[in-house]
Every structure is written in structure tokens, then in C-alpha cells.
Amino acid sequence: MPQHVQGVIAPGRNEPVRVETIVIPDPGPGEAVVKIQACGVCHTDLHYKQGAINDEFPFLLGHEAAGIVESVGEGVTDVVPGDFVILNWRAVCGTCRACLRGRPWYCFATHNAKQKMTLLDGTELSPALGIGAFAEKTLVAAGQCTKVDPAVAPEVAGLLGCGVMAGIGAAINTGNVGRGDTVAVIGCGGVGDAAVVGARLAGAAKIIAVDIDDRKLEKAREMGATHTVNSRTADAVEAIRELTGGFGADVVIEAVGRPETYEQAFYARDLAGTVVLVGVPSPEMKLELPLLDVFGRGGSLKSSWYGDCLPSRDFPMLIDLHQQGRIDLAAFVTETIGLGDVEKAFARMHEGDVLRSVVVL
Ligand code: APR
Ligand code: ZN
Ligand code: ZN
């Protein structure tokens, strides 16, 4: 029997979001219905609401979530009802060239649930990143569910589904930060702070946090940054060079998504250093670099897609580390809110003192 639950929809471009009754079909083959316990409010949800991603309104927002599998469709064996899971954006096929080469985050045949969730009048909903978890329940492809230890608070576990994984993964997977490395992180929001946590986890000797907001820098220090640079008052590249004996950092992680910070990241790396781009630029942005600087400085310029993560490998590992007290994922939760507070949480994103507002159900 299809179920009626409450969910947060974005009805049209820049219109306020609102809680509506939505219809969740029974899971079909390869699908699962998940009872959502917590879902973080991410910038991407705001971008959906603004029509910046596509115009397939109405959207069912929310995609950084953890919950309990309620029911599964035919052929689903990896998860069973009662499992505590973190949701990821897309199930991967496991057999395409990208999957076979160990890069499933670039899978050519990712999929979400085939069936659609709808409004009461039958209008089909577009779930944000194929998830739609600002809702009491949601329908996903079973492969989007990764089982983890249920002892972890859902509002903490859910964060691994997007921003925190993107940041930690940028450091440990894409940047391959090693013991003793010097690391600079430009932009210390949720993603940048997670990169700081990842760098510390990987054994970096120096972690230099760069931001234009002192409050963000203070928080980055709590997360493990050893040095901070306010790039409103100091030249970020020069400051990073000074702090690294004149060389530049072994790994520079850009977590803003702007041409000027991409450029800073490029010049702040040591010879043969690695630049990791995790901030998402908007489509019109361009970066011009003298080719001789690209050639002459060596090293690599990498982009990090979803922290280049393998959910089934990385989610349980990070949950273990959190439970052992070796990383503190709870430090990313600024506030817990209700389903009706998502619009307010969007407004608070720009206030500077919020890493993550998390909807708890
Ligand atoms: N130089 C340094 N820091 C900056 C600059 C700048 N020119 N402009 C903004 N910042 C800082 C902000 O002060 C803030 O602390 O960058 C941080 C951005 O953080 P959030 O807005 O909280 O964004 P976050 O969720 O961390 O995501 C960062 O990564 O995954 C992507 O789409 C995401 O592009 C976004 C980026
Ligand atoms: Zn997100
Ligand atoms: Zn694949």
C-alpha cells in the first residue's frame, strides 16, 4: 500500500519551501523505503530551490541522511528491514569500466529508484540527488543504502552522506595526504573543516586553514587546524608559503568554488604538490593560468567528486573512527531542527556561525 508521509518540497524557483503530504510507493525490484531519522541541510538543497541545478520542480529536498530500512523490494539482499543506513546519491552498477577500474564514483550507469514519489494530486516529485530525505520516509534504490553501526546518533551518521564525506575524502582519497605532509585548506565551511579533519586523520604535520571569516577560522582550529590565515587581511599564497618554510603546501584543498581561490590553491602548492578542487564552481566561471606555471611547478591538479568515496568502504570506516573518538563528527552539527524549519536553516547558512543544521525526525 502506498503511504502518505510529510516531506519538504521546493515548489518552484526561489519560492519558499513547505511541508506537504507526499505519497511513497511500495518498493519495487531493487528499491527500498527508508524511515528517515536525520537529514542535514546542505547548500545543494538551496541550489535546487533556486533552480540552479535544473528546473524539474517540484523537488523533494534533503540528501544528507541516515535512517532505518523499512521495507525492500524484490531481489534486494544487501540490506534488510531494520538496518540502520546512510544514504548515498546513486547506486552504482558494479560492472561498467569506471566501476571495474575501482572508481565507482564515476560509474556510467548509476541509478536511483525507478518509481516516483508524488504529491497527493499525482504530481511527480524530483528527489534532491535522487534521495529526497527531508521527509518521514523516502524511496531509494537499495544500492543507495550503506549499512553502518546503529549505535551512532543519526544526526551524526547522516552527515557522511554528503558534505563531511566530500571534505574528508578530498584529503584522504583524492589528496592522498600522508604522514608529515603540510596541508592548506582554503574555505572552512562544513566541507573545508571536514578536509581539516581528514588531513589530521592522515597524519599531516601542519594544517593551515584559510578563510575570510575569523569565526570560521576559530572553528577550523577546533577541528585540528594548526595555523590560520584570514585572506581578507593577508595574502593567502604568501602566508601559506611563509608557514611552510617558503615552499608551499604538499597538498592544497580548495573548498570554496571561486576562480580566485582556485588560483590561490594553484600557487600555494609546493613544487610537485597536489591541488584538490572540491568547491563546486558555477558554470560561467573560468580560470586562466600561465601554462608555464602549470608545467614548471609539476605536481597535479585534481578534482574531488563526492570525496572520491566508496560508501561501502568509507562510511563504516569513518563511523568506527568517530566511535573510537579519533574524529569528532558531532562537531559539525550546529543545531537540530524540525521539518518545518528548513527555510529558516537556508537563511542561517549565510550568517557564518552554522556548519550544519540537521533536521531530526
Ligand atoms: N577565500 C577564502 N574563504 C572563502 C572565500 C574566499 N574568497 N569566500 C568564501 N569563503 C569561505 C566562507 O567564509 C565559508 O567559510 O568559504 C566557506 C564556504 O563554506 P560554506 O558556504 O559553508 O560551504 P560548504 O558547505 O563548506 O561547501 C563549500 O564545497 O562541495 C562544495 O558546493 C560546495 O562549493 C561548495 C564548497
Ligand atoms: Zn550535499
Ligand atoms: Zn558502474
TrEMBL record:
One of its GO terms (molecular function) is mycothiol-dependent formaldehyde dehydrogenase activity. InterPro entries: ADH-like_C, ADH-like_N, ADH_Zn_CS, ER, GroES-like_sf, MycoS_dep_FDH, NAD(P)-bd_dom_sf. It is an enzyme of class 1 (oxidoreductase). The keyword Zinc applies. The keyword Oxidoreductase applies. This is S-(Hydroxymethyl)mycothiol dehydrogenase. Belongs to the zinc-containing alcohol dehydrogenase family. Keywords: Metal-binding, Oxidoreductase, Zinc. Its EC number is 1.1.1.306. It comes from Streptomyces tanashiensis. Its cofactor is Zn(2+). Residues 12-361 form the Enoyl reductase (ER) domain.
